Amino acid sequence: MKKRILAYGRLNDEQLAQLGQDFEVQTFPDLASADDPAFRSALPDAHGLIGASVAITPELLEEAPNLEAIATISVGYDKYPVEELTRRGILLCNTPDVLTETTADTGFLLIMATARRAVELAELIKRGEWQTGIGPEHFGSDVHGKTLGMIGFGRIGAAVARRGALGFGMRILYTKASPKPELEVELGAERHEMDSLLAEADIICVTVPLTAETEHLIGEREFALMKPTAIFVNIARGQVVNEAALIEALEMGRIRAAGLDVFEQEPLSPESPLPHMTNVVALPHIGSATHETRHAMAQRAVDNLVLALRGEHPINLVNEAAWRSV
Ligand code: 8YV
C-alpha cells in the first residue's frame, strides 16, 4: 500500500505529480487551521505532511500515529514541537538557503522604505498634496554610510549585512552567541554585546529565529537603549519583539521608525495601530514571497519529503536525532 501524504501548501501540478509517483496525495488547498474536520479525519492514515500554514501541536501528533515526516515550506520551524517530533522519530524538514537572498531583499526593502519614508510620501501624492517642492518636514535619512546592527547573523542576517556593507558602505555590528570570523573578514563586521549594538546602530535589523530564548528579546529596555533616530526592522518573527513596547517607543518618539514584515499575531489584527502610523512601514509577511523563491521552497519541501518517506536522508533535516532513531 502506498504511503499517504497530506499536502496543504501551495504546490504546482508538477510538484503534486512528483509526490504522486510514489505516494497517495490528499490536498487541502488554503488550509487555515489544523482543526479543519477533513484534515483531522485524514491524520490517522498520514505518513507525511507538507505545507506551512498551520501549527502542528503535540495533541495533533496523537492523532497521527503513522506519521514519519513533515516537510515545512519555510525555513522557520517555530510552529512545530521539535522535541516531541524527535521523541516520536518523526523527521522535520525545512527549506533554508533557497529563500536567503529574497528574505534579505525584503529586509533591505524595509530599511530603504522606512529611512526614506517611501510609503508615507507615496501616500502624499495620492492625496494630491504634492504642490510645492518637498521640504525638510518630509526629508528622510541616509542609509549609505550608516551603522547597521544585526540581531542574528545566520544565513539571512549575513545576506542583509552583505547588502549593507558591499552595496551601501555601511559599518556592520552583529550580536551572536558564536563569532563569525569569516564575515568579520569579508564585511568588516564587529561582534558586539546586545546593549552596545543597540546604542551604536543607526539601523537595527532582527533576523533571529523564534525560540524560547528569543521570545520578547526586544522590549521596553532595549528600545530605550536605541538612538532616538534609530530605525528598527523586523524580518524574523513578531514574537521576538514585545509589540506593545514597540508601539509605545514609536508613539513616544523613542525611536524614529519601524519596518515590519512580521507581527505577534498574523494576520495582523485590524485593531493594530501599526499599519496606520506614519513612521511605520508594515508588510503582510512577504519575506520570501516571490514567484521564484516560493517555487524553489515548495520544490525543496517536495524533494525533502520524497527522500524522507523513501527512507533516505532528506536534504534539510531539522531534528537529526530523529534520523538516528529511524
Ligand atoms: C514564509 C518564513 O513566508 O520561511 C519562513 O520561515 O517566514 C517565510 O518565508 C512562511 O513561513 C510561509 O511559508
From TrEMBL:
GO MF annotation terms: glyoxylate reductase (NADPH) activity; hydroxypyruvate reductase [NAD(P)H] activity; NAD binding
Superkingdom of source: Bacteria
Listed Pfam families: 2-Hacid_dh (PF00389), 2-Hacid_dh_C (PF02826)
Gene3D superfamilies: NAD(P)-binding Rossmann-like Domain
Sequence ranges assigned to domain D-isomer specific 2-hydroxyacid dehydrogenase catalytic in this UniProt record: 6-319
Coiled-coil intervals, chain numbering: none
GO cellular component terms listed in the entry, alphabetical order: cytosol
Residue span(s) of domain D-isomer specific 2-hydroxyacid dehydrogenase NAD-binding: 109-287
Oxidoreductase listed as a keyword: yes
Keywords: NAD, Oxidoreductase
Family as reported in the entry's similarity comment: Belongs to the D-isomer specific 2-hydroxyacid dehydrogenase family.
Name assigned to this protein: Phosphogluconate 2-dehydrogenase
Organism the protein comes from: Halomonas daqiaonensis
